[in-house]
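Shape matters. Shown next:

___
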Amino acid sequence: MRVHYHTFGCKANQYDTERMRQELEARGAVTATDYTQADVCVVNTCTVTNHADADARRFVRRLRRESPDARIVVAGCSAALRTADYHAMDGVEAVVPGHDPVAVAQAVDHVLPNLVQLGVRRPLDRLDMEPVGGEILRRRVGATRGWVKIQDGCDRKCSFCATRLARGVSRSREPDQIIAEARALAVNHPELVLTGIHIGHYGRDLDARATLGGLLALLLDEVPDVRFRLGSIEASEIDDPLLELLATSDQRVAPHLHMPLQSGSDSVLRKMSRWHTREAYRARALEIAARVTPLGLGADIITGFPGETDEDHAQTRALIEELPFTYLHVFPFSPRDGTTAATMPDPVPQRVAAERSRELRELAQRKGRAYRESRVGERAVIVLEGGAGTALTEDYLRVRVVGTGQASPGALHPAILEGIGDELHARLTRRAMRR
């Protein structure tokens, strides 16, 4: 049986798809890279915006049109909130409201009975109704960097966010299980990204009251010769022990942080039900930048949130100008069904929100270009990305690699950064640091 997987959304969703793939391959399925050659197509959906829902439904219709003989199984966040909608779609034969790989395997067996060996191995030892643990992921197929999911769900209640509705409360994996997964992934991946839905809350639900900094310290000790990178994390949750690891780990913790900001206006932040102020974010970002060099720094920004004024936008722009961002993810506000923000008064016209997004993206591009230029002539440690001739630096710069003949995708490589036009190139300087 040939199964094709298509993923929408975040790193956590992509991790979940890898768990689904691993589960089905363990039961005898073969992964198909082309959906037109697949017997079953598993679509792992995202619900971060209504547009994300629409994208998933559009893709399902495309599958039905271009591969009419394939059976379609829909899973993920959007499937959790719109189960009936997906059941009603032509061609969809099973819907899994969530991300459980065992439930996906059982759904596949239901639509194509006797083609999946359900009795091949023991069931997963799940930690919850959604497996934030269970059978460890051993490889991220087709990728140099591996992802380790350390928790799922979120306890915050941002007024614009539907992901927490689909994912549930924050649930952490036990440290020993995370270490076991990191060791397994380290065989094939020189860099591991710690991911989840709200990783800054890691450990709050565990009996031992583990912390993200404590977990990271354990991983550095227990899994040598691997670079770790943090997924998206709130500025307010980068505590002093975590900052110390970033500053003193000799870059075994990648000097790169993606810290969601959403707005630089306190008025808008309150409407968003965010828990940080403009000044608290600013102060922490500057403190981090003073201690960690180089530093790749990114953020999420929403423009045109209900009630956002020209002055609110100007405050956001001024904060972005001041802080050492190297990239931004900027999106105009999109109301999400079921969230508080969807019914807020004073909507901002879409053309205004789009124009504000364009303005901030252009600003981010200028700041990113200046940062790349500042890195020319400096050293970096890169991890290759397959056979495309590109690599990623510790501070999250994508570069083209010079002289890849001696380079291995399964290693970290020291390099010198060179500026060629608008691109950064990395010239390897000596043998790989690993394998």
